[in-house]
Design a protein that fits this description.
The complex is a heterodimer of chains A (about 375) and B (about 850).
Chain A: E1 3-8, H1 22-33, H2 35-46, E2 50-54, H3 65-77, E3 82-86, H4 98-105, E4 110-112, E5 119-122, E6 125-129, E7 155-161, H5 170-175, H6 181-184, E8 189-193, E9 199-200, E10 205-207, E11 223-229, E12 237-242, E13 250-255, H7 258-262, H8 264-269, E14 278-288, H9 289-305, E15 308-319, H10 322-328, H11 333-347, H12 352-373
Parallel strand pairs in A: 1-2, 2-3, 3-4, 6-7, 7-8, 8-10, 13-14, 14-15
Antiparallel strand pairs in A: 1-11, 5-6, 9-10, 11-12
Chain B: E1 2-11, E2 14-21, E3 28-32, H1 39-51, H2 59-62, E4 74-81, E5 84-91, E6 97-102, E7 107-111, H3 113-123, H4 131-136, H5 153-162, H6 168-185, H7 195-244, H8 246-390, H9 395-418, E8 421-425, H10 428-433, E9 435-436, E10 439-440, E11 445-449, E12 452-457, E13 463-468, H11 472-491, H12 497-524, H13 529-541, H14 560-609, H15 612-646, H16 650-688, H17 693-739, H18 741-754, E14 759-762, E15 768-773, E16 776-779, H19 785-805, E17 812-815, H20 823-836, E18 842-846, E19 858-859, E20 862-864
Helix pairs in contact in B: 6-17, 7-16, 7-17, 8-12, 8-13, 8-14, 8-15, 8-16, 9-11, 9-12, 18-19, 19-20
The chains are: A alpha/beta (about 375), B alpha+beta (about 850).
Chain lengths: ~375, ~850
């Protein structure tokens, strides 16, 4: 018998987005909650009756009451679906903590995977969750699945949260999820959370990624996975579905010519909805001062067209020509000062960046003075 | 340009008249005149001509009218420019004139407005400046003003020399902009954030502080949650124990074992009692047997004691008899020795008494002799003493007489020395004929002093009478001295000093005799005569009546000391034998008593025990009873051991029950504690409240990241502005230094001469801005008035020298320009003016004629002048 469900993770509900102005932060927070009705729609469209969230439902162990109640209310609204919530490392389960409060408030269609044991979902379908109950687990939390007993022929779906690759730290190595877990634990599918980008680990293990991006990282985010397995032992069919409201692209552009500048905006906005785009733009290259002021104008215009623009221009060099210096001063003290600043800027010392800014300010002041003189 | 002559007419105080200064030389010249002469009027008039059109009519020009709204000031100067002499004439107001006349060619070069233009071109003054007269001239009352208003001449010359000083104004504008931007971001002195920067920093700090608090609360919350978890696990463990009721079952089993142990213990108690009774009986039988044996032994011991004490008493009696005999013998020996000693002592006393009486007799005879001598001395002593007391010829008196005699000698000698000396050298006839005061001479050559009347008779030749009047005072002195001596001698009844001396010697001898008597008396009766008499009385008392010193008792020849020793030894021996006898007497009495007591005790003990056979029978019976009791005790012990081997340990059983009871109680208490603890932790969790701590922390961290970036951006902006500012300022200073170097080179020696080693920084307006001496750099306006004056003049001189070198000579004109200088500096300024005037024309106006007389240079004269116009 087939079983279909929605695999999601890393909702990070309650993330405050304090680095943004309040209006945008509010929208971003709301977008995260709105993934619940979005997922409900996907589930219904795909004919799935269960939605699994593999960890980090909430952004912290200590969300405000509203941040707990509102999502639960939204889940309750989708009462035709069953929501399976598992604690991750951000919202780990401890006695008296977040999940005790959730237990008290959860509606009937919200099931909490707080123990490492098989949960019967439907007849012959079992979830084997590995919830986080400690900040610093001493080992791979999914180990228990290898010896977990379920009726013969039952579909076994493991749910885990953490990395299958360690990144060098001892703690991460201890909790690293064994890549062979699906085989060792006879899992038909392994629903993973923690990695915010959509990622297939192997035939039976996937990271769904976060359904709503929350920071500037270039990975495949904004998806949920529709997982279908025909029977115990059959390979699962996994279908990603985009659900995110906002797009957070990180783009790099090399600027060297006026043409690069003039085509920048269109190139960036092509195929994007500016009102739902938060853009981080890394600029490199080298431009003259005149071109730099044009670029600044283009960037100002671009900023007006997107929700948020973060420009990182440390890799963009300013080319200062003798003509540029002549506009300042042909041979007087201002020219001399500009040449000295240029030398510092190009010298690569600790003052290089300061000199670069100083030179930029000098040109700005000089141009303003020239305009007022004119 | 060089000024050759200045003429003014109908200007200010020179109403209707004129005054001229002719033949102004090229180097240093001065016009010294009193106040109100019009020196400044002359100075200002030249400037009026050079700086204003002849058609000008404003207040500046009208100020030169001699009377308000009346008069036409006329100013005329002769100048030399490019080796050509010109006469420039302007009359203002009234009949306006402007002319430029070439004195060398006699041609009118320009007239009217053309003349104004010609003059403007010459001086390169215009609407923006007054040319060299603005730069190089010092007006009265403006002595501290630094050079300014150079127009285009100096900049052109400097630029021709060193290039363009471009950007000064722009640099100032940019610097000001930097300062303004910095002011919005940081405070001036300490560069602490202000404005938006400060707000961002303050917000950042507030957020960081709050975050620290919230993180602390999260840590606390984590701790509570961890504690709660541990408590829950502990509670769970305890609940499991309760459910299995393990402890209760163990307790019941332990109690059952305890009951069995107690039953066995009761049985054991009975058997142990029996064993103890049997042991007691054994002990009793043993004691009875031992006691009887002891009594028998005692009887034997008493018999032995009785025999020993009797033997001892007999021995002591024998020794007592021996001691008694010895004592009697020793007593006799001592009596004989004691008698011999007594007799010898008596003889010895007799002999000493005789010797003492003999010594007393001798002493009394000596004392009698002494007393007789004392009487004799006393008879002679008293009169001699009286005599001496009355004898006036003491040493002191003799000294006094000697002093008076010396005075006589001295006064006489002095008198003599003042008397004239008469020396007579007589021939043989003269000797016969010549007499002095009737006395002939005995020698042909005589010398004598004369005084008073001296009559020298020369026989038939006549007399020479000389009357010498001695110096009265000296004579008086001599006479006084003689009289004094005489009087002193008379007072002691001496005819002369020698006589007095002899009398003194006699007195001395008498004194010696008296002293001899005193010594003898001292020897014979140091304590006085009475003492001697008392001694004599005592000595006589020691001599018996009818004492015959020759009749002394005969000695025995025995050694008294030896007899004493013998007597002592005999006495000691007697005492020893007496003590021994006494001791043996006491011992004999004691031994007798002891022997008697021992016999009595033995008798009593033997009667209670019976004879030997009876004693043996009794002892056997007692030992048999002991053996029976021992057997019974062994049987009882066996029964106890057998029972003990089978019984459980009561103490261990009791311990086991106590252990399980305690464990149950502890478990109950632990559960209660854990429950209480859990309730407390839950309560604390609830107290934390539902305030969304996690969201707060996340939000704060994100906001802090944003604020940090903004703060860093501000900080970078401050650094960049500071860097821009310092770079601009340095560039400007460098440019200015390079630009003004030619002037600095001219100024340096002049400055060094007057003020000392230093550097003057010139500003864009060509005025002196700062003076640097050593490490100290000062704004010109902060210096003293005198120094400002000096720098103002020296700078102008430097400018003028530079302009001259560049082919554009212009005069330096100073009107009372050194009013604050001290004498030393003024002197140095004169030296510098002399030096500079070698190259440039310097004209100095002053009201201090005397002070400036040492300046040197040409003294200018102002002569009356009437204009041809």
């Amino acid at each position: 018998m087939a079983f279909k469900f929605i695999h999601s993770a890393d909702w990070q509900l309650g993330k405050p987005f304090g680095g943004f102005e309040s209006d945008l932060a509010g929208e971003l927070k709301a977008a995260r909650r709105n993934i619940i009705p979005a997922l409900a729609k996907v589930a219904r469209d795909q004919g799935a009756g269960h939605i699994v969230v593999a960890g980090d439902v909430w952004d912290s162990e200590l969300p405000s009451p509203g941040e707990i109640q509102k999502p639960l209310d939204l889940m309750a609204d989708a009462s035709d679906l069953t929501w399976w919530l598992m604690p991750g490392n951000h919202d780990l389960h401890r006695k008296g903590g977040l999940w005790s409060r959730v237990q008290k408030l959860a509606p009937a269609n919200v099931r909490l995977l707080l123990e490492s044991r098989p949960f019967e979902v439907e007849s012959d379908v079992f979830f084997l969750p590995a919830p986080w109950t400690s900040k610093f687990p001493a080992n791979d939390l999914t180990v228990w699945m290898d010896s977990a007993e379920t009726p013969a022929g039952a579909i076994r779906i493991g749910i885990g949260h953490g990395g299958y690759k360690s990144f060098g730290s001892d703690a991460a190595e201890k909790t690293r999820i064994d890549e062979e877990r699906p085989a060792k634990a006879r899992l038909d599918y392994f629903a993973l959370g923690d990695w915010h980008g959509k990622l297939q680990v192997n035939d039976r293990a996937w990271y769904s990624g976060t359904p709503e991006p929350d920071r500037f990282v270039n990975n495949d985010r904004g998806y949920v996975l529709v997982v279908e397995t025909e029977s115990a032992g059959a390979l699962p069919i996994v279908t990603p579905v985009k659900v995110s409201t906002f797009d957070w692209p990180v783009l790099e552009r090399d600027i060297r010519t006026l043409e690069d500048i003039e085509t920048l905006r269109n190139a960036i906005l092509d195929g994007r909805q500016g009102s739902s785009t938060l853009l981080q733009l890394h600029l490199s290259g080298a431009v003259s001062l005149d071109a730099r002021s044009r670029l600044d104008r283009e960037l100002s215009a671009l900023e007006a067209q997107v929700q948020f623009l973060d420009v990182r221009a440390s890799g963009l060099q300013s080319l200062i020509s003798p003509d540029d210096l002549d506009t300042l001063d042909t041979q007087g003290s201002v020219r001399q000062a500009a040449e000295q600043l240029q030398a510092i800027m190009e010298g690569g010392s600790a003052q290089s960046e300061d000199a670069k800014l100083a030179l930029s300010i000098l040109f700005t002041y000089a141009l303003d003075a020239a305009e007022s003189d004119a | 340009m060089k000024l050759l002559a200045i003429r003014i007419h109908d200007v200010k105080r020179f109403a209707g008249t004129g005054i001229a200064i002719e033949n102004i030389p090229g180097g240093l010249s001065r016009l010294a005149a009193e106040n109100e002469f019009g020196k400044s009027t002359i100075f200002e008039s030249v400037r009026l001509l050079l700086q204003h059109k002849h058609t000008a009519g404003g207040a500046v020009v009208r100020a030169f009218q001699p009377q308000a709204n009346s008069g036409s000031p006329l100013v005329e100067i002769d100048i030399e420019s490019n080796q050509t002499r010109y006469r420039l004439t302007k009359r203002f107001l009234g009949k306006k004139i402007a002319r430029v006349f070439n004195l060398d060619t006699g041609i009118l070069e320009a007239d009217g407005g053309d003349a104004d233009d010609w003059i403007t071109r010459l001086t390169q003054s215009g609407s923006n400046s007054h040319g060299p007269s603005g730069l190089l001239w010092v007006a009265q009352g403006q002595s501290m003003n630094q050079p300014s208003d150079s127009g285009d001449i100096l900049p052109n010359l400097l630029e021709a020399e060193v290039g363009t000083l471009v950007g000064g104004k722009r640099a100032r504008t940019l610097l000001k902009r930097c300062d303004d931007a910095l002011t919005e971001l940081v405070t001036a002195k300490t560069q602490n954030p202000t404005g938006n920067f400060k707000r961002v920093s303050a917000d950042l700090k507030a957020l960081e502080d709050q975050l620290a608090i919230d993180l602390g609360r999260r840590v606390e919350l984590d701790a509570i949650l961890q504690d709660l978890e541990r408590t829950e696990r502990s509670l769970q463990v305890h609940r499991e124990q309760e459910e299995t009721d393990e402890l209760a079952g163990k307790l019941a089993a332990a109690r059952e074992r305890l009951s069995q142990a107690e039953q066995f213990a009761a049985q054991m108690s009975v058997l142990v009692g029996r064993q103890e009774l049997a042991n007691a009986q054994v002990e009793s039988a043993r004691r009875a047997a031992q006691e009887y044996e002891t009594r028998c032994a005692t009887l034997v011991s008493l018999a032995e004691q009785r025999d020993k004490s009797a033997e001892k008493a007999a021995d002591i009696s024998r020794r007592l008899a021996q001691a008694k005999d010895r004592f009697s013998q020793d007593q006799s020996d001592w009596s004989r020795a004691e008698e011999r000693l007594r007799n010898e002592r008596q003889l010895d006393r007799q002999i000493r008494a005789h010797e003492a009486a003999k010594a007393a007799l001798t002493k009394s005879e000596s004392l009698e002799r002494s007393l007789a001598r004392v009487s004799a001395i006393r008879q002679e002593f008293a009169p001699l003493k009286v005599q001496l007391d009355n004898d006036p010829f003491t040493d002191r008196k003799i000294a006094e007489l000697q002093t008076l005699d010396n005075e006589v000698i001295r006064t006489r000698s002095k008198l003599e020395s003042t008397r004239p000396t008469m020396t007579l050298s007589l021939s043989a006839e003269g000797l016969a004929e010549v007499t002095v005061n009737g006395q002939a001479r005995s020698e042909p050559e005589t010398t004598s002093t004369i005084s008073g009347d001296t009559d020298i008779s020369m026989g038939a030749l006549g007399h020479i009478r000389i009357n010498i009047i001695d110096q009265q005072s000296l004579a008086t002195d001599a006479e006084t001295a003689v009289l004094a001596l005489r009087s002193a001698l008379d007072s002691v009844d001496a005819s002369s000093l020698d006589h007095a001396r002899k009398r003194a010697e006699m007195r001395s001898q008498s004194q010696i005799d008296l002293q001899g008597f005193e010594r003898e008396l001292e020897q014979l009766a140091p304590d006085g005569r009475q003492v001697l008499e008392d001694e004599l009385t005592r000595a006589r008392a020691l001599v018996p009546d009818n004492f015959d010193p020759e009749d002394a008792p005969q000695a025995s020849g025995c050694d008294l000391g030896e007899l004493e020793i013998q007597e002592k030894e005999a006495l000691a021996k007697r005492d020893t034998s007496r003590d021994a006898h006494t001791e043996l007497q006491n011992a004999a009495a004691h031994a007798g008593a002891v022997a008697e007591m021992a016999a009595s005790a033995c008798q009593t003990h033997a009667s209670s025990l019976g004879d030997d056979q009876a004693r043996r029978d009794q002892l056997l019976a007692l030992k048999a009873a002991l053996a029976d009791a021992g057997a019974e005790a062994s049987r009882a012990l066996g029964a106890v051991d057998e029972a003990r081997a089978q019984a459980p340990d009561l103490a261990i059983a009791r311990s086991a029950v106590a252990r399980f009871e305690s464990a149950i109680k502890t478990a109950q208490e632990t559960r209660a504690d854990l429950s209480t603890r859990r309730a407390g932790l839950v309560s604390r969790l609830e107290a934390f409240g539902d305030d969304g701590l996690g969201e707060k922390i996340s939000a704060a961290e994100e906001e802090i990241a944003v604020l940090r970036r903004r703060s860093d951006a501000y900080a970078q902006q401050v650094r960049a502005l500071n860097l821009l500012r310092s770079t601009l300022s340095d560039a400007q200073s460098t440019m200015q230094a390079r630009y003004f170097k030619p002037i600095a080179d001219e100024l340096e020696p002049l400055l060094s001469q007057v003020i000392g080693k230093g550097d003057v920084t010139l500003g864009d307006d060509y005025g002196a801005a700062r003076l640097k001496r050593g490490d100290m750099s000062e704004d010109i306006v902060t210096l003293s008035g005198g120094t400002q004056e000096q720098i103002a003049v020296l700078t102008r001189l430097a400018y003028a020298k530079f302009m001259k070198k560049q082919g554009y000579p212009a005069p330096v004109f100073l009107d009372d320009a050194l009013v604050y200088c001290d004498d030393a500096r003024l002197d140095e300024m004169f030296t510098v003016l002399q030096y500079a005037a070698q190259d440039i024309q310097c004209i100095v106006l002053t009201c201090h004629e005397r002070l400036f007389a040492t300046m040197g240079g040409t003294q200018l004269k102002a002569e009356p002048w009437s204009s041809e116009y």
